[in-house]
């Protein structure tokens, strides 16, 4: 759960194959706390949202590479990162695309900064 002031609370549900224990779905649920009757609703399923063939490392690497050249896709990532909260970006330039690509292709903070 996120407690950020300008983002809506969210959580992810990982669905795994019972035999292989490999992930087959990643679902993100969010809640609009300002709604008259707040409730968690499915925001998106990762493979459908980003048009991924599967959840393999190769698919995630290809997605990171797409972020580096696709402003619309990078903006979509930025908006989803904040769960469509109050301070969502409306554009994504070359620097933004590079930042998204770096964030999603590295898991160590200083490697992201060096990217």
Number of strands: 3
- As residue ranges, the low-confidence spans are none
Largest β sheet strand count, sense and barrel closure: 3 strands, antiparallel
What's the overall geometry?
A: globular
Radius of gyration: 15 Å
Alpha-carbon distance between the two ends: 28 Å
Structural class: alpha+beta
Strand order of the largest sheet: 1-2-3
Helix content: 25-40%
Let me know the average pLDDT.
Answer: 88
Number of domains: 1
The number of helical elements comes to 5
Q: How large a portion of the residues is in β-strands, by DSSP E?
A: 15-25%
Element-by-element helix/strand order: EEEHHHHH
Describe the structure using short key phrases.
115 residues, alpha+beta, three-stranded antiparallel beta sheet
Protein architecture, described:
- This protein is an alpha+beta fold.
- Helices cover 38% and strands 17% of the residues.
- The chain has one domain (10-114).
- The protein has 5 helices and 3 strands, in the order βββααααα.
- It has a 3-stranded antiparallel beta sheet.
- Strand 1 (10-16) and strand 2 form a beta hairpin.
- Helix 2 (57-67) packs antiparallel against helix 4 (94-105) and helix 3 crosses helix 4.
- The two termini are 28 Å apart.
Quick structural summary:
The protein has 115 residues and is an alpha+beta fold. It has five helices and three strands. The chain has one domain (10-114).
